[in-house]
Write a structure and sequence with these properties.
This protein is an alpha+beta fold. Helices cover 20% and strands 33% of the residues.
Length: 362
């Protein structure tokens, strides 16, 4: 009998077990879903600070003569014109315009970049970059060498200053610095996936346990798992790759054209122009329900005449709001904020309203 291949684990796997985390599979990795509970971890991120183990995500370096210009021709947002010390979010598309991945790249030097990918697409992204970039550009996975922690919440800055001596006062959103903590090289960026204040640290993998324990020793910091990450990003209106966006959707349908720079060339551009001219048949929207009843991925979205008009891609109960929010695809006629829709579950119909993305404005 062929048994399924075991999930991978981050360097902090034993730390999660020691904290009695509820573990579960995610994109081929065994990851913490929650520790104390999703609601308490969500609230801690909004009021204090939490630390996420994001060591499952892909980290790739792209360097060498012409690296920035070459990567520019693959992704939807600027690379070569990006100032050193800045980060950028954008897409890696296939020739048909489908979203292969959403990425963040960090401009370390004129031809020296670090790219962070989603966990499930890391190997595919690595192979694609290696096959599409010129031979003089070095593309190297940092798996096993570097890892990543996200410290998020209003207390994140003071905590990092107090524990590691890191001054975040000059860091603006989507900027970063390369510094050191007790002779350990650290990339510190003002980025994150919660819609609120926070920072991400990339550093040598062998320091993961030490950094994790130092952070959790602070009274304002607690661990948070993928459950809270999902409620936080949904509250902020941020899509998740593999749920809300994937290769079957282009940035046009995903309503993410603000991360596409049509003044430059990139793989998939012609397909996007054709799609824009024709107009999308569906658009990704953010919605808020009128209560706590559960809504899940795959539930049909109906118009008020109860005609099926789309599908839910992700949804979750949001603490504090006391309602369920989510994302899904509907026809353009229903994609305007303020439009009422119905979500049909196995047990009931849930009223919802299309809204501007992000109910968390912190």
């Amino acid at each position: 009998m062929n048994l399924p291949e075991s999930n991978r684990s981050t360097p902090l796997y034993q730390e999660h077990l020691a904290l009695k985390a509820k573990m579960g599979p995610f994109s081929g990795w065994d990851m913490p879903i929650w520790y104390a509970g999703i609601i308490s971890e969500h609230e801690a991120c909004r009021t204090k600070a939490v630390v996420f183990d994001t060591g499952h995500m892909g980290i790739i370096t792209v360097s060498g003569r012409g690296a920035a210009a070459a990567l520019d021709r693959l992704v939807t947002a600027k690379v070569a014109a990006l100032p050193v010390g800045r980060a950028k979010y954008g897409f890696l598309l296939d020739p048909a315009g489908g979203i292969r991945d959403d990425l963040i790249w960090f401009k370390r030097g004129e031809d020296d970049l670090l790219v962070v990918t989603n966990a499930g697409t890391a190997e595919d992204d690595l192979n694609r970059l290696r096959s599409k970039l010129p031979v003089e550009v070095q593309v190297n996975s940092q798996a096993g060498l570097l890892t990543k922690l996200d410290v998020q919440g209003p207390a994140a800055g003071p905590v990092l200053r107090e524990i590691f001596g890191l001054d975040v006062s000059t860091l603006k959103y989507f900027t970063f610095v390369e510094t050191s903590v007790k002779n350990v090289a650290v990339m510190l960026s003002a980025t994150g996936y919660t819609g609120g204040p926070g920072f991400e640290l990339i550093f040598p993998q062998e320091e993961a346990t030490s950094f994790w324990r130092q952070l959790l020793a602070h009274p304002l910091v607690s661990p948070a798992g993928l459950g809270a990450r999902d409620t936080l990003r949904l509250e902020a209106g941020l899509p998740l790759y593999g749920m809300d966006i994937d290769k079957s959707r282009t940035p046009v349908e995903a309503a993410r054209m603000k991360f596409v720079e049509l003044h430059k060339d990139f793989v998939g551009k012609e397909a996007l122009l054709t799609r824009l001219e024709a107009g999308p048949s569906q658009l990704l929207v953010f919605f808020i329900t009128d209560g706590r009843r559960a809504v899940r991925h795959g539930h049909p979205i109906l118009d008020l005449s109860r005609k099926e008009a789309g599908v839910v891609t992700s949804a979750a109960f949001i603490p504090g709001l006391n309602k369920v929010v989510g994302m899904g695809y509907v026809g353009p006629a229903l994609a305007h904020p303020g439009t009422d829709v119905i979500i049909k579950t196995e047990r009931w119909e849930v009223k919802a309203t299309v809204a501007a993305p992000g109910v968390n404005k912190k």
